[in-house]
Write a structure and sequence with these properties.
Chain lengths: ~425, ~425, ~425, ~425
């Protein structure tokens, strides 16, 4: 977790001290459930709760000897509250604490992420409405294709974010499972009812059939959904980078007062936020792979997943949140340049309307291939020799023969091309996260 | 798609000829919808449907000239049915056909996969019931931990398969979207109602806001869910490989009559099916990465996703189906060796019951650390000097002081350890896919 | 291996029949070496060599019973040549044949790939010289930065290809290791001298310490180097896609006569070859991951690597060769548009020369920050209000004060900017693969 | 970089303060070279060197305004040394500093890693000699195969580490390239001789043809070689985990005094170091993917690689070093249990020697298939009915007919099986890193 790419709240969530707090919370929840079942003396929790000052450094010191983090933690607690502490962790195994805490942390992280994802989705929908009539040239293969509106682009981002938020919510459900079931997950020295009560208190459900740990397909699903969403945000970023290119320059990400684009070139205004997002997407994507490898643990568990998760859980969640926040600012603060949008629309002298012309000819009974060749030849001539495409169409014998002036005018009318864009925006914005 | 790892039905699904059939189906669905809206002459579909003999080789020949697969296809159709063919593809773009067909193929592939996943899940649940009382030693870190039952293992696999099936179903919904919306997805020369009618006929829904293509987060989700499920099946395979080890030998995958384990060593019976599954999991896992990279296409689309999908879609789906089939056979046909299960349970002379002893001492009021050290010292002595662990416990001064003979006996009773296993199996099997 | 993306020679190399040929070759080499050591009767090889007609279908039939490919192969050979066949495979294990053959195949595949890589490198160097004086605007962050030459771009590609070719050659050495050392690699029923002689004949070296197999770090290295090179070729493709954009249009990949850019839009000429390369790069990249996972086999080997390699070895090598061939054609056949290069250079009205102006001012003793702000304010005004940048510079009080007319002219002279480009090209082209 | 998995020296290397130190070093090297060429006033470096107290916090403060890290750094320097600072960075671009510094850091990181890799290799070779005659059963597919020696295993690890070290050295060469060539890499406001002199001072070479940055295939190669080596170390870890299994228990990783294996089960001694290494391998492996994606930057560069590298460079290098250190301790401190090695060797009652018997029969002129079936039937009977394999062999009619007592005894002699192991160890240890 680099400070540079991490919010304060995420930093705190994954902080070592916070982790120990979660551990204590889980131990106490289990202990409270045991009290209720008279498995530990009444009043045990009361003797511990609020009486422990968790000191991460001291716990790490103890761990150097025990080489076992949970035992170090328990020793630290026992050092402070004495005798009642021996009722903690009764019949539990470390993973009961670790996995249940981890579920709480991941849950909270996902909630933060979903919040940012919703904000980004809202910015997209807002921009979709704002620019529902902002005509721009659509591009396929990087080549100008046909006119569309910016609103449609934002609406498409919105709808995709809705899908991502739904996936994240499913992942959130999938991860909201804890486990207090002992060494091999079968309550050998525990009771399923204790688990149920303790997890209820914590807002989690019991893993239906655990091993020593909560099963790792759940975590793999979390990291996979983050990776997919990162791809969506990368798509926005890449699009904006394209828009911001000098030769296109239809939009640009926000640029702060005092910001310097380049240490060498004072004229530059670079889409660095979006480039940064692109890089973060690569990184977030990469965390899915080790999470997938973590699924096939040995027998009732091996601990190989642990080092992976210590690294990727804070990194993947904090980077995703950061990326979403950043994308939210970029999308909402986007500078859009209408003059350039108009200039680019006219760049090909109407070539981008050629499909409409083609279709009019076909409708008049000309074979598709023949029509295609006629329009393509005008297009090629306009491109290569610089002729006026609309004029060339008007003078092409085949086209002249089949299309009247009005028909051609309609085909060459941009507004006609984008007549369904508002419908698309309405349809996309009707999707709800 | 290697024949070796591919079912006949998958081979057929992804066959080139089949793909062209799907294309024709989509073209005709669009044309039929246009007929209904009087955008093309009544009777056009009737003049084409059933009259075209699609010849993949001829289409490939034409493609060599056009260097465009859909145009080659249309030319081939026009060569056969003549004039009415010019009403096909009217206002459409290639991706309208390609993406809609691809959705149909992926849908069918996922349905096949879900079928196999359900079969595998059923085998797991069957084995869970069959072996609900088959006691085995549970292992963590590869080290014997505490007793459990085989039924719990199978139940755990079952519950995880249920989760995977649900994820696949979500992915199936996500991918059941087509698109007939033209070059930049905004119906410039089309009508959303035509799209709706055509997709209805095909069992698909319209992408709410498309570009030239259906958005690739949908596909990334499909390949990610396959990767996760592959991890689950790998888990089964790795477990069985461990069980089959010479020194463990508690179970073995089915071994055919006439099968040879090794060209060099006649005594060998190797878990090659499970090792094969392990390798396939690695491969299926790897397909998620390029699918994730495919999300961020340029502007209204670039075609970089296409080569990726041509390769990974048939490969990932056929390998996953194959892996599931194979795993189904292995799980249902597993040879289980009760004698070895019993032998291994007793291998440590009771060491695996040490936690229960520890807990009894703690319950008697001894501090956890002290109790832990007492039991660990007996365990270490038994392990290193080969003493009888139960005897050592009985003679340990601290333990002697706090535990009566009966208490110790209960702690050392295996049946007591596994008393909750049937509850776990019932709970897991209550999950429904 | 899709026919679409596979050369005839690669198809043949990885063909099943070819594999059996390699197996026979290895068996005979081992047998010949044993003859020389009088471990098998003189004349055995002569009785087999040239007398076997390998029939892949028949071998597959036998494998259905044996479920072991090498045993099926040996049975097939024995069915044909009878008694002498029993001297084959003496003391060998299947992997002696499989891994040694696989080394021969990978070696040949890498040689084919290196050949194409060299051709691509040559095209780059040729273009570097051809366009050593073709001035173009350099771009960073997609934003126009400073002038450079196209020759420098090609030279940079060349130098990177040289590095890739060297890596491939190292990988080729690393993979040129076979193994004829028996079931656990220790010549229990063999002799290291037999291995040495047989591998010598085949052009391979013995794995210094094998298990049952040649160690998989070697293969991981091969697939990793392919992945890196794919990234380099992707870089070329992405650059060309950028150049070909409508608004930039400085170059375009070759476009065949009769080729159709779009089924809907007759005016389009899309960089589909380069987009295809981009997608292939994603795919080739993805094969490195399972190859890395293959390294940590269990004990003296498990067979999990096998299914991975059956899939990725033909796929990764054939796709890489295909990609290189395609890139070679694209780079050598690139259409370059000098008019557009010139137009784009002038697009900012000289803004791209601002760094030189900045530096001249600094040299005159002005603090860097102050100078930066002066130039940036002119740049901003030119950009936002459309003023003439050169004029604005001339009228800026600070600049006026410190720079004479001539100094300013020199700073604004493009040729001065690119004066070192030829040196770079010479230096890069001096690198030899 | 988690403290848990990071050495002090690595932490320092990647520390922010250290990075600024490297930046200053590079700026001064460039400035010194310019002094020599009289491009900046004599004595400039002397006025700066040793006079700057770099304060990371202050630089970050400035960056909040400039949103540009190098400009913030330069401002900070200028704030301290005043006027002479304006001669710094003259004609340079940020990446000249960043990439050159990054090369210095990566170089140093790789050197640290190579040192640990050499130590690990040495431990392997030491253990190979120590255990050159320690016979153990070799296992393929997890099934006992044939006897070998532990020395061969260690020798195999050694030879593989040698290959990895060589790859790392190649990567080290590949990364020892800097760049002081300006905004688009063509020395527009610089001089190649300045670059050469400055890089010479720093121990680097000039990128033959740079863009704004050093090309990223170099970095992809570094991260790929780390990933491969991680696979090798994972192999060691997985092997040791297998050896340590309760049922095998031939070796165990070192276990500290006071260490607790499990919070629940006092008898446990878990291979947690090796499991940890396994997880780290997954993580290190995953860093190769984004490094590969970083290669194809846009035009003369985009900055998407930057966020990736800020994260993966410290993480991948520190984790690799940590993993190597840990593996070194594990391999050198391995507890080996001769009694268990002997017990396991005899576990199958001689089944593991079956190949030798098979071969003796074949040598006597029996067809391979027939011989195979004879031995397999004895093996199956011994396994399934618990008979004595050696006795069964002696009584098998076919075997009896063809093999004398002595021949059978030789085939069943373990020492004969491992006679070539010392040769293998010598050969492997002759490889030099």
């Amino acid at each position: 977790m680099l400070d540079r790419y991490c919010s304060e709240e995420m930093k705190q969530l994954w902080d070592l001290g916070q982790k120990y707090q979660y551990w204590l919370k889980v131990e106490l929840a289990a202990c409270r459930a045991m009290e209720a079942k008279e498995m530990v003396p009444r009043g045990t929790v009361a003797k511990i709760e609020g009486k422990v000052e968790l000191d991460p450094q001291k716990i790490l010191e103890i761990e150097k000897v025990t080489r076992h983090d949970v035992i170090a933690f328990l020793t630290h607690v026992e050092n402070q509250v004495g005798e009642p502490a021996r009722w903690l962790h009764l019949g539990l195994t470390s993973s009961d604490i670790l996995d249940t805490s981890f579920a709480l942390q991941l849950k909270q992280a996902l909630e933060m992420i979903i919040t940012e994802a919703e904000i980004l989705a809202d910015h997209c929908s807002h921009q979709a409405l704002e620019h529902k009539d902002t005509i721009m040239i659509g591009r396929t293969h990087g080549i100008q294709a046909e006119p569309t509106t910016m609103g449609v682009v934002f609406a498409m981002w919105y709808a995709e974010m809705v899908r991502n938020i739904k996936r994240l919510r499913t992942a959130l459900c999938d991860i909201s499972f804890g486990k207090i079931a002992g060494a091999v997950g079968n309550y050998a020295n525990l009771d399923p009812e204790v688990e149920k009560a303790a997890l209820d208190e914590l807002g989690l459900k019991p893993e239906p059939a655990a091993t020593q740990v909560v099963q790792r397909d759940r975590h793999a699903f979390v990291f996979s959904t983050l990776a997919i969403m990162a791809g969506t945000v990368e798509k926005m970023a890449v699009t904006i980078r394209h828009w911001q290119r000098t030769e296109v320059h239809e939009a640009a990400e926000p640029f702060g007062k005092g910001q310097k684009g380049s240490s060498a070139m004072p004229h530059k205004r670079n889409p660095i936020l979006c480039e940064n997002i692109t890089g973060l997407a690569r990184t977030i994507r990469s965390y899915a792979a080790p999470a997938l490898e973590n699924i096939a643990l040995w027998h009732e568990r091996d601990i190989s997943h642990s080092s992976v998760e210590r690294i990727i859980a804070p990194d993947a969640t904090s980077l995703t949140q950061f990326m979403l926040k950043r994308a939210g600012r970029v999308v909402s603060g986007l500078d859009i340049f209408p003059k350039n949008l108009a200039r680019n629309l006219e760049l090909t002298g109407g070539l981008v309307l050629s499909e409409a012309v083609l279709l009019e000819i076909v409708k008049e009974g000309v074979g598709r291939q023949k029509a295609y060749e006629a329009v393509q030849s005008c297009a090629m001539e306009a491109t290569e020799k610089g002729g006026d495409f609309r004029e060339l169409l008007r003078n092409n014998p085949l086209i002249k023969k089949h299309l009247g002036e009005k028909q051609l005018d309609k085909a060459l009318n941009i507004n006609h091309h984008v007549r369904h864009c508002n419908f698309i925006i309405r349809r996309a914005l009707a999707e709800k996260y």
